Amino acid sequence: MNTPTTPADPMIRVNKLEKHFGHLKVLRGISFELSRGEVLVFIGPSGSGKTTLLRCLAQLEVPDSGEIWIDGARFDQRTRRSVGMVFQQFNLFPHLSVLGNITLAPRLVRGTSREAVTAEARELLRRVHLLDKAGAYPSQLSGGQQQRVAIARSLAMQPKVMLFDEVTSALDRELVKEVLQVMKELAEDGMTMVVVTHELWFARNVADRIFFIDHGVVVEEGPPERIFSAPKEERTRRFLGDLV
Questions:
Q1: Which of 21, 96, 225, 236 pairs as cysteine with 100 (C-beta 3.0–4.6 A)?
Q2: How many angstroms separate the CA atoms of 111 and 117, rounded?
Q3: Cβ–Cβ < 8 Å for 183, 152
Q4: Would you say the pTM of this structure is higher than 0.90?
Q5: What string of pLDDT tens digits covers the 244 residues of the chain?
Q6: First to last CA, the chain
Q7: 129: exposed, middle or buried (Cβ count in 10 Å: 0-12, 13-18, 19+)
Q8: Quick count: other Cβ atoms within 10 Å of Cβ 220?
């Protein structure tokens, strides 16, 4: 039974999460809590389990053991809509306009009227600085613009938590900043966020906490200023040294 929550309760609670693919142990007992409005950034080498962790939080992968609680409710299909996820690839429908991409799911899943969902979509486009592109099609947009549409599309489902999986990795360097700026603004507006990224600027300036993960375990965690200036673990120091 779910118990009533208070503002002091964590938005996300993960307890001893395990995920295996055959004999490969990808997540090894991951545990953490995330407060409402907090931004948690996971960093670590490729193959360390970061994306698998996000996919478990989005219920795109089923953990082998452990618990996930979202806003006081044990995570299952009924609470799936509480979580929005933005992927590395944009995955926009090429035959739909920007407005059509954003309004499709709210109309089908939430049952919102066309008029209401169109008004909401236009407000989201304003929020991601693309209101003038409402009638454009994905092929007419840059990669950065497509990713911002993908963010707006996810926000249209009114999630309580947003997950971002290396959302700038497919972009040219000059387009990265515009996407990270939108994410920064979401954080400033109080959105609870879990982010996987190699963008150290974003991690330093936006994260409330940094988790360094390697081989499926959390090696080190802490505020950005400590993780980047004085990491305690040698593995963390080596990882950050390779990126600088």
A1: 96
A2: 9
A3: no
A4: yes
A5: 455 455 568 999 999 999 999 999 999 999 999 999 999 999 999 999 999 999 999 999 999 999 999 998 888 766 778 899 999 888 999 999 999 999 999 988 877 788 999 999 999 999 999 999 999 999 999 999 999 999 999 999 999 999 999 999 888 888 898 999 999 999 999 999 999 998 888 999 999 999 999 999 999 999 999 999 999 999 999 999 876 5
A6: 48
A7: middle
A8: 19
